[in-house]
Amino acid sequence: MNKNRKAHVTRRLRKIIVALLAMALCFALFFVWNHFQNQSFDETFYRVFSQKINEPVRAVYLSDAHQVRFGEKNEKLLEHIRSLEPDIILLGGDLLNDVDPDVDYVIELCQKLVQIAPVFYGLGNHENKVIYDMDLYKDQLEEAGIEEGTEDFSDLVVDRRLLDGLEQCGVTVLQNADEEIEVNGNRILIGGVSTNVDSFWPYSGKFYTAFDHKSESTFKILLSHFPGTVTQYLDDSTVDLALAGHLHGGIVRIPGLGGLKSADEGYFPEYDAGKFQIGNTQLIVGRGLGNHGAIPRILNKPEIVIVDLF
After folding, report:
1. Environment class of residue 246 by beta-carbon count within 10 Å: exposed (0-12), middle (13-18) or buried (19+)?
2. Model confidence pTM above 0.85
């Protein structure tokens, strides 16, 4: 190989090495930036209009925290929620992890939240795993000898710490249950289900049917951790607003395309985040606050949801 040929190869090799180093540096800077983005949170505001609401009501909705903290003892999160001055606070499940669960994390957070506004808690699959040692899938309930139509799972409880702690700090837990409240002169009925898509109808169907047939003049909110429950079963419902989570916004969000993947819906899930119209029901799916699993949130900043009812 002559000298000119060697010099050409050397220059080309140097360019390749410089390009690879530049790409590696860009990726490193991106992931550092992304990491710091995930240390704070977005707030997403939605407006829901209804003739059943006479005076405005503000609800703050949190889901899928997975034991993440924003500031020491979540003070940054709590301070921001206080500044929003909510009338009610709604929790959509998976505030803790089923692996190495920190029940005290949830209790300490809820003790502070109830000082801001009344708190209503719809359980998620991670709470179910801690409380019942199962996710409440249909085959799990059948294997445990729970007959279809049963909607009280108290006989399955193996760990009462979370339920007892929430009760003691004044949180209303809604599992196949509802609570009617008065807020700013409005009657609001809040219900909650923690069964998933395959177990919803056999093990929450009676509750949902009764909830659906209650007073049509009362504004109805349903906490359903799994958006699939709403999209599959509430297309002909009197529920005014459904709040869900679970999908973490698709984990990785691609600009213009949305979330990349969900365990329930596969790639590019339709109901990954945002507001949707399902029959008569407005569905809001939150991206959640935390993460669970090996893949970090990418271009998917943690989120709290604020719903203003008018």
Report:
1. buried
2. yes
CB atoms closer than 10 angstroms to residue 60: 23
Specify the DSSP class assigned to residue 252: B
What distances in angstroms separate CA 244 from CA 142, 167, 223, 274, 288, one per listed residue?
25, 23, 6, 10, 10
Burial group, residue 281, by CB count within 10 angstroms (0-12, 13-18, 19+): buried
Q: 3-state class of 188 per DSSP?
A: strand
For residue 236, is pLDDT > 60? yes
309 closest CA partner among 119, 109, 110, 90: 90
Euclidean distance between CA atoms 120 and 92, whole angstroms = 9
CA triplet 214, 219, 222: central angle to 5 degrees? 80
- Which of these, 263, 266, 255, lies nearest to 300 by C-alpha position? 255
Tokens of 22: 């530049």
> What does the pLDDT look like over 46-62, one tens digit per residue?
999 999 999 999 999 99
Q: What strands, in cross-sheet order, belong to the sheet with 186-193?
A: 177-183, 186-193, 219-224, 241-244, 281-285, 274-278
Q: How far apart are CA 92 and CA 246, in angstroms?
A: 9
CATH domain 41-309 topology = Purple Acid Phosphatase; chain A, domain 2 (3.60.21)
Give Cα separations from 92 to 27, 42, 259 (angstroms): 34, 17, 19
Structure-model confidence comparison of residues 258 and 25, the more confident one: 258
CA 144 vs. chain centroid, Å, equals 27
Distance set, CA 295 to CA 97, 224, 252, 302 (Å):
16, 25, 8, 14
Residue found under tokens 């898509």:
197
Supply 66's token pair: 């997975």
DSSP conformation class of 278: E
Q: Which residues, at least 6 apart from 24, have a Cβ–Cβ distance to it below 8 Å?
A: none
Q: What is the pLDDT of residue 173?
A: 98
Residue whose entry in the numeric block shows the structure tokens 């719809």 = 122
**Which two tokens mark 68?**
């993440």
CB 61 within 8 A of CB 273: no
